[in-house]
């Protein structure tokens, strides 16, 4: 029995991505409350083999919660004394899910009737607000101002609305989630699709716990993908050193590696490994505006990452190869 953690509850898009990656019957899906819990559970609970988390959306860009967890693992693993909570995790596959957002109510409602319950809030995952901004603006022109309330996931948002409506039917909160969430919690879809852009797609990572011998995990066989492989590398370059980033990217060029994406997130290196309060001068050293970079290399050939890593190690302050995995067919849809 394969056990897979995912951003829950049932009915999230992460749940759908997990079902796409693990279609077989002998899989148990274990919903987690947050993306951070997915990382932590995979890392600490030996009974869980995989975790599925959202990485980026074609309309709204990075799911920063996930990128920051990939970053924090790098910081943590730099300090040998902290618990290597997530340094035993690797990326072994990716999945793409088409995001057809729906406006969902906990019960039948005519939004435009005069005697409907009071509506004041709409709940969803923070990634959604940028994917349905235009729709929500038009909706507010019809039903009045709506508080947009962040929830830990789209399906979790609908569960919140259904639970609160059961306790008080005078007020009704709405949620933006997928059809699977409506089915999971008995919500009523009152408008769909409501995403501003057609083809709105979210990319998910499938994570696995590295075996103790610390070799790069084998990627999962492509469920429906190409033979092209992706390697995700996180690294920090020397701050305030002209050309330090270019020097690292030049390693990829000189090895004929095709870089297919680059992203960055704020990075605050721990001074003294976070053990003691940094002195003023050390704090000055810790510039506010430092970044960690995430690069993806797309290739069909096998690359000798052991030797390439030596070049990267020489030119970076810290780096981590997060794994090599097959390009999923969903990338091309
Ligand atoms: O909340 C979910 O359903 C997720 O899986 C995260 C997410 C949120 C919004 C769009 C895509 C994925």
UniProtKB/TrEMBL annotation:
<comment type="pathway">
    <text>Amino-acid biosynthesis; L-phenylalanine biosynthesis; phenylpyruvate from prephenate: step 1/1.</text>
</comment>
<keyword id="KW-0584">Phenylalanine biosynthesis</keyword>
<keyword id="KW-0057">Aromatic amino acid biosynthesis</keyword>
<feature type="domain" description="Prephenate dehydratase">
    <location>
        <begin position="3"/>
        <end position="209"/>
    </location>
</feature>
<feature type="domain" description="ACT">
    <location>
        <begin position="233"/>
        <end position="329"/>
    </location>
</feature>
<keyword id="KW-0028">Amino-acid biosynthesis</keyword>
<dbReference type="InterPro" id="IPR002912">
    <property type="entry name" value="ACT_dom"/>
</dbReference>
<dbReference type="InterPro" id="IPR001086">
    <property type="entry name" value="Preph_deHydtase"/>
</dbReference>
<keyword id="KW-0456">Lyase</keyword>
<dbReference type="InterPro" id="IPR008242">
    <property type="entry name" value="Chor_mutase/pphenate_deHydtase"/>
</dbReference>
<dbReference type="InterPro" id="IPR045865">
    <property type="entry name" value="ACT-like_dom_sf"/>
</dbReference>
<dbReference type="GO" id="GO:0004664">
    <property type="term" value="F:prephenate dehydratase activity"/>
</dbReference>
<dbReference type="GO" id="GO:0005737">
    <property type="term" value="C:cytoplasm"/>
</dbReference>
<dbReference type="Pfam" id="PF00800">
    <property type="entry name" value="PDT"/>
</dbReference>
<dbReference type="GO" id="GO:0009094">
    <property type="term" value="P:L-phenylalanine biosynthetic process"/>
</dbReference>
<protein>
    <recommendedName>
        <fullName>prephenate dehydratase</fullName>
        <ecNumber>4.2.1.51</ecNumber>
    </recommendedName>
</protein>
